[in-house]
Amino acid sequence: MRPTINEDAEREQRVSVPLDESVERALQIYRNVDYEDNKYAMHDYIRSKYQELFLPLLSPAQIDIVLHKIIAQTPKEKLFDGMTGDYFSELVKRSYNEGNNNFVLTTNDTSIDNLPTRISGTKNTPLHILVSGNLGRFAAKKTQYIDLIVRGDIGHFFCCDAEHSVFTLYGVMKGNFFFRPQIVSLMLHGRTSTQK
Q1: Which residues pair with 166 in a beta bridge?
Q2: Is 94 contained in some domain?
Q3: Is CB count within 10 Å lower at the N or C end of the chain?
Q4: Residue 103 in contact with residue 128, Cβ under 8 Å?
Q5: Residue among 171, 144, 141, 133 at smallest CA distance from 158
Q6: Structural domain tally of the chain?
Q7: What is the per-residue pLDDT across 58-86, written as a single tens digit (0 to 9) for each?
Q8: For residue 58, is it within any domain?
Q9: Which DSSP symbol is given to 177?
């Protein structure tokens, strides 16, 4: 005899998903950095605080899991502030420096400022990032040797001070962009907009 729906539901509730300690540590570090105390701090200061906290080494898939959870659990004002983008940029940088590449960051309709920013690949091994969704302001700021594909919209001041990088965009690029880039390539499969 086939189990009833109620028996199936009870059985599903008893199945536990193994806890990923590295993902949980990354979430806890993010939650512990006090947004109110740091929202006006300079980005270099915030990044140095993240580095002091001994961020866990995460795989590209784990970074995307952390991103999903933070988007679901964090007030929008903190997501839109550069602290969140700086945090994920540090996670990607650390992972890339340990040999990982081909990152997929799923933001959907959430725009996060400073994602990615101040990270670099190398000439022989560019950093590959695919963003499935939107990015906020200052995306790709001060990046070098990255290949960034964005399947969504991008906010103001895209790729400021970027060098030796390739950007492929499928969406709307808003406002000002390309401020002091050096040797970059842009393929726009969408449109530009001056709306704020």
Answers
A1: 147, 185
A2: yes
A3: N
A4: yes
A5: 141
A6: 1
A7: 999 999 999 999 999 988 877 777 888 98
A8: yes
A9: B
What CA dihedral angle connects 132, 45, 95 and 156, to 10 degrees?
Answer: 20
Among 9-18, 40-49, 109-118, 175-184, the minimum mean pLDDT is found in: 9-18
> What does 114-173 look like in DSSP terms, one character per residue?
TSSBS-B--SSSPEEEEEEE-B-TTTTBT-BSEEEEESS-B-SSBTTT-EEEEEEE-SEE
Residue 4 lies in a domain: no
Report yes or no on 125 lying in a domain.
Answer: yes
Residues 6+ positions from 25 with CB-CB distance below 8 Å: 56
Residues 6+ apart with CB under 8 A from 167: 140, 148, 149, 150, 158, 159, 184, 185, 186, 187
This prediction's pTM: 0.81
Q: How far is C-alpha 84 from the chain's CA centre?
A: 8
Domain limits for position 179: 20-193
Query: Residue 187, SS3?
Result: strand
Confidence of residue 16 (pLDDT cuts 50, 70, 90): very low
* Rg, Å, the chain Cα set: 18
